[in-house]
Amino acid sequence: MKASIVRGYGQPFEIADIDIATPIGREVLVDVRASGLCHSDELAATHPLGYEPPMVLGHEVAGVVIGVGPDVSEVKIGDHIVGCLVQYCGTCKRCLAGKVTLCSNPSYTERSVDQPPRLSENGQPVAQGMALGGFAQQILVHENQVAVVPNEIPWPQAALLGCGVVTGAGAVLNTANVQPSDAVVIIGTGGVGLNALNGAITAGAATIIAIDIADEKLERAKKFGATHVINSAKEDPVAAVLRITGVGADSVFDFVGLGPVTQQALQMVAPGGGLYLIGVLDPTATLTVSPVELLSMKRRVEGVYMGGTSAKRDIPLYANLYLQGRFELDALVSSEISLADVQDGYASLKNPEIARVVVTDLS
């Protein structure tokens, strides 16, 4: 099959013919119909994040099941599925408590070292990014990492459900548990931040403030339902949030992850509110906090991974909300490209007018 492969850190994505194994155990073979470009894969292509080149990346993937292993029980041939990078065993203490993003044994969804690799080229193993490898014509994945969605949802929109949507909306709905009377701030209105807007609308938040440095992104945030927008390159965002809310926001979501931005975000939090950290543009960034201030103001700071999602519950939920016209996905798909154009697709994401790019031509 054809795949977009990375042969070394910092090297470009290139098309190659590789082999994919036959399903065993609880594995599912899927014909890929759409695969979204996420910045996490671009980072994995340039930095060692646990995958050794040569590797096939891509984790926002949707397609049709065409084969199943003998122990598969949750999907069947012909199902439309969305893949999710959350790997979990389903049997550890945290999984049994419903906290699958904290699974103690995430490698459960991968093949063991004594089994043949899922992907290979000329007999040599090819790494499968996030146990998915969605920049390819097919994926072979454990059934724990797929969720069945209605056939009616278009493929590009479906693909985005597996990461950007569950991360953004899940941070609002699962982690922060935003309520209808709440004021929320969303810092960074790229693809994931826009899904936090979707989540805030779904929760019925009374005040939804979007902050960015690009007017194009803020205009799009208005269309998604932001009640207020702030260009932090043109005015003090902390002062603006306090002016709008009076006391600060109940929940502040940082999708940027730069030290000065996160420091400002903490100052926007109302007494009793929370700051939720999702973006990581600068892995070395730090946040200075005063324990006395956190105690006296009853503020909290929490890291959020994948929106605390339970993929088999949340992905079908958001798919159905979309089909009911209650969850915006269409405006997220800025362009559709071919598998051969992944490198150029990532370059296009630097344009603030581009929300998400999706591979839909797998020929």
What is the fold's blueprint, element by element?
Blueprint: E1 2-6, E2 14-17, E3 19-20, E4 27-36, H1 39-46, E5 55-56, E6 60-68, E7 80-83, H2 93-96, E8 119-121, E9 124-125, E10 127-128, E11 138-142, E12 146-148, H3 155-175, E13 183-187, H4 191-203, E14 207-212, H5 215-224, E15 228-231, H6 237-245, E16 249-254, H7 259-267, E17 269-277, H8 291-297, E18 300-303, H9 311-323, E19 333-338, H10 342-348, E20 356-361
Helix pairs in contact: 3-4, 3-9
What does this structure look like?
The protein is globular, with a radius of gyration of 20 Å. The protein has ten helices and 20 strands. The longest helix has 21 residues. The strands form four sheets. Strands 4, 6, 7, 11, 12, 19 and 20 form a seven-stranded mixed β-sheet that branches. It has a six-stranded parallel β-sheet with strand order 15-14-13-16-17-18, sandwiched between helices. A four-stranded mixed β-sheet has the order 2-1-5-10, with no helix packed on it. By secondary structure, it is an alpha/beta fold. Strand 14, helix 5 and strand 15 form a beta-alpha-beta unit. It has two domains: about 180 residues, Quinone Oxidoreductase, Chain A, domain 1 (Alpha-Beta Complex), CATH 3.90.180; about 140 residues, 3-Layer(aba) Sandwich (Rossmann fold).
How would you summarize what this structure contains?
By secondary structure, the protein is of the alpha/beta class. It folds into two domains: 2-148 and 329-361, Quinone Oxidoreductase, Chain A, domain 1, CATH 3.90.180.10; 167-305, Rossmann fold (3-Layer(aba) Sandwich).
